[in-house]
Amino acid sequence: MSEGMDEMGRHIRFIDTHCHFDFPPFSGNESDSIALAYAQGVRHIIVPTISAERFQRVLALVNLHPMLFAAVGLHPLYIEQHIEQDVEHLSDVLASKPNRLVAVGEIGLDLFMDNPQLERQLAILRAQLKLAKHHDLPVILHSRRSHDQLSRELRSVNLSRGGVVHGFSGSLSQAQAFIKLGYFIGVGGTITYDRAHKTRQVIAELPLSTLLLETDAPDMPLSGYQGQPNRPERVRKVFEALCELRPEPSTVIAETIWQNTCRLFGISASF
């Protein structure tokens, strides 16, 4: 582990850049869940939506809990649910400039699922990227077996604010392609598994200035927590795994990633 972990102790500060806090086990138990996360150094949680019907719930949550920030978008895994009016709804929500909205997301491409309906996915993605550009917002991107296709789409739209490719598990060259376009790489629980050799090596080699931390809670359980819902406080465990992989002192890793996150999402770096 990098030097400096012990002296940082409980003073490390984190932002979980990807947590579906509007789902169980958090829904109905938000205050306790926030307290648990705060006790482990989590100062902010970014909550992306998956569908239009979740927009208002997430926006209401972030108004109730100052620790939370929102992203609104149409997730590609739910392509069967999305209708044309959902993009119009998203446009209306973005135009209203809700409090504590920091990104368009979770959006992207997914070619891993059965019947991915790529053309529909592409149409909805392009519409959302256009909205992000119009409203000068970064994007939170989902990508499974679609990194090269997604890179092409991002290259054509040229967003000024960029975004993050969340839960990245592609190759070094694919990560570098996203970074060249101005995107960050989301580091999640995958790196806590020793068997994830490729992802761990990629994250070890990328510039620290390009990395963000996330949990994707309640999904993507960490090593040692298989079968349990993931939780935002476990972003600390992701950080500890990252420190094992990186040469920089843990103090530098923590502060650099904090600043990366604040810069991307326009969050105040003080708390």
From TrEMBL:
Gene3D superfamilies given in the database record: Metal-dependent hydrolases
Chain sites annotated for binding a divalent metal cation 2: H142, H166
Species this protein is from: Hafnia paralvei
Matching InterPro entries: DNase_TatD-rel_CS, Metal_Hydrolase, TatD-like
Family: Belongs to the metallo-dependent hydrolases superfamily. TatD-type hydrolase family.
Keywords linked to the UniProt accession: Hydrolase, Metal-binding
GO cellular component: cytosol
Listed Pfam families: TatD_DNase
Top-level division of the source organism's lineage: Bacteria
GO molecular function: hydrolase activity, acting on ester bonds; metal ion binding
Protein name as annotated: Metal-dependent hydrolase
Binding, a divalent metal cation 1: H18, H20, E106, D216
